[in-house]
From TrEMBL:
Gene3D superfamilies: Alanine racemase, Lyase, Ornithine Decarboxylase, Chain A, domain 1. This is Diaminopimelate decarboxylase. Pathway: Amino-acid biosynthesis; L-lysine biosynthesis via DAP pathway; L-lysine from DL-2,6-diaminopimelate: step 1/1. Pfam families: Orn_Arg_deC_N (PF02784). One of its GO terms (molecular function) is pyridoxal phosphate binding. Substrate binds at residues 284, 319, 323, 351, 379. Belongs to the Orn/Lys/Arg decarboxylase class-II family. LysA subfamily. It is an enzyme of class 4 (lyase). It catalyses: meso-2,6-diaminopimelate + H(+) = L-lysine + CO2.
Amino acid sequence: MFPDIDVNDKGHLTIGGADAVDLADRYGTPLYVIDEMRIRDNYRRLYRAFSERYSRFQIFYACKANTGLAVMRILEEEGSGIDAVSPGEIYTSLMAGFEPERILYTGNNVTDSELRFAVDAGVMINVDSRSQLRRLAEIAPEGLRISFRVNPLVGAGHHEHCITGGEMSKFGIMESEAAEVYSLAVDMGFEPVGIHAHIGSGILDPEPFMLAVESLMDIAGRVSEESGVEFDFIDFGGGLGIPYRPEEEPLDIEEFASRITGLFREKLSEYGLGKPVMCLEPGRYIVGDASYLLTRVNTVKESYRRFAGVDAGFNTLLRPAMYGSYHHILVADRPLDEAVEEIDIAGNVCESGDLFARDRKLPEIHEGDVLAVMNAGAYAFSMASQYNSRPRPAEVLVRDGESEVVRERETFADLLSKQTVPPRLLKR
Ligand SMILES: *Cc1c(COP(=O)(O)O)cnc(C)c1O
């Protein structure tokens, strides 16, 4: 599933049928380019694989991966729900046209006012702690339908920071107290209808995910036996990984779906859980490989090492600096040329850690070349900042070779827009 490298008759990289070098010339760099059909294909592949095997299946797109309105609209059209982790994401989802019933709010360390916002918005609240339950009880209407996030003591992920299950994780309710907490919720007047776990991110090996499914089903079974709760939905979270390196194997989604739905059905009948909706909350899997970050080489520098300096930095794409993540990079002007040199690709932020790649094998690079950083659709723009007072880049959406701006490039004025200077400090 590693994105195919498509090239036009000029030998330039194309994205969704559009010439990447032309896009860079026309809209400037750095530039995020989103391939609409790639998002739709990813969604449909996943949806089909699961719904063919278990018809009561729903995807809640984890929008923290990419909250762009155009991306959200595409997924709303596809029939997705939303996994929101903050009031801002709930707001954005509503503005993108998602019905509140299609939004699941999985907050973490949530304030009372955030809970009130979620209750007023009418979204499903996925409760993370006893504290949250107690505080929710004070504002929630009688009979509010809720779900709980439990920590199934299984974790996995591409980086320590992305493991969200297991003993070290701050997320969810301990599995040993799950049944008790559900009973407590019933006593408090709630109607618990869902159970949820999300064990981590960037998972390419089905095994830990299978363990989490098994564990969550056993917990659901126990909760149902001990508290009499009937589940409308069981949500296994997201975390489905994508290959970032060409040699990495993608998840075999058919096999993955077959194993998970198989185990799910077995456990449903073992515990007599009926036919709840099965949910997944993929973020990265849906949008990760659908965007490219285009950045132009402005400096080729021979120092102690050989550097290609570009006009983007970790303010634009944080993952390499934050997680040490690998992102495959193409020279958009000639992506199929043979790799002849090893070079560091360095950003323009004033920190030594601002590198997109070390010793990367690439075709010979010249000043003025456009580089395409692949797999820049998830946790990319959504983590961008104005650090070093650099306005955030533009985003364009491409489909059938046509491109449209879906987010304007910020300006210098945007850097100052929310600031005020006390009158006594104004320059006279
Ligand atoms: C981040 C997150 C996801 C999605 O993670 P991906 O690795 O992008 O699939 C799903 N559910 C919850 C609760 C999350 O916090």
